[in-house]
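Listing 4. Sequential folding, example run.
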Amino acid sequence: MIGRFFHTPAAKRFNITPRFYDPEKEEREERERRIKEELGIFDEKKDDGKPYKPNVKGQFRKTQGGYSKTTEKARRASNTRLIILVMILVLIFYLFFYSDFLG
């Protein structure tokens, strides 16, 4: 029991081996790339002279058409609840400190 109380679990290991690794294909592609570089042939599809810059930011919202209506409704409802809560707290504060209502 005491030994289990101070037990710390071992770190989990992540070991993955590639499923479809073809060393011959990689050698062939590397050889083709070197030959094309030596001959000065550049693949137009792969390299347009610009470094690759991913454009991921905001892509999900663009495909979904911006914010959804349910998100806007939830935001509006949350703001309304917050305003009502603040008004109730101000009313309680006023009645407690500035009114002779409670005695």
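-- end of first protein; second protein begins --
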Amino acid sequence: MSRLLLEVTKLQPQDIVVLHDLDITVVTPDTVTAADISEIEISYGWSTEIGKKILADPTSKLRWVQTMSAGVDYMPLAELADRQVMLTNASGLKSVPIAQSVISYILHFARGLNVYQTQTHWQEFTDQYTISELPTVIFGTGNIGRQIAHYLKALGGRVYGVNTSGHPVDGFDDVVAIDNLGALPDDIAVVVDVLPGTDTTVNFFNAERFATLGDLYLFINVGRGTTVNQADLITSLQAGTIRQAALDVTLPEPLPDDSPLWQQPNLLLTQHTTWAENSSAGRAGNLFPLFMKNLPSYLANQPLSVNVVDLTRGY
């Protein structure tokens, strides 16, 4: 009997052919019927509207959800756990463009481009830095954090990581536990936030945390907007204890036109677009090959092994 897959995230025609050859029938949010709801086994992407219907059906056959994003804070994790539904994310899919964006943020400020882009007459600005002069700590040592560290090391940087346990990770000069930030060097200049959005990371970067980290040259967030207390960040930017900041994620999104974040001259805002790359248009342009790494295991009733989310921890 054919298995049913709900195509929320766009599949290419050749992808559908591959699935068809594996006896998987594809339905879309536009073609799904009431009778299909209980029969859907795999959700490729997630529709809140249809997902609620699936999870409300006691006879639902849903067993696996593949998200188009690395973060899964928007997913009904508790319900999925109750129903023993497996969840895989897109971690690592956009590590390269995101990491390159982070490097561009650092160089934008370090090489004085933020000053020169607004000048309309000749005025030398030489308060510039090289990567080796800006010791950096990355909060989050997963795929994205490791890629950022790789680029920084290639440019001569000194790079530290922060994760839950402080376990060593290749590519970092040292890694400390998230509850042992006092073990970080005193000369940290740049903080990169790649934390996931969980209950434990809400407002993690607040006035108290900024005070612990000391004066910073640059604060960057490419993780989740929920991890930063934006009012405290603005206070630090205005006081000069954080000299500059770059945010790709905010709370809320889209950011309203009247948000005070837009008014901070030492803050660079991008609109959750660090994932973008021309050769693979869209947030999930190259998701299917990642999905296919797990599909054979699923069809063989074996555990999934790639990008499996711990539904309790949320990442």
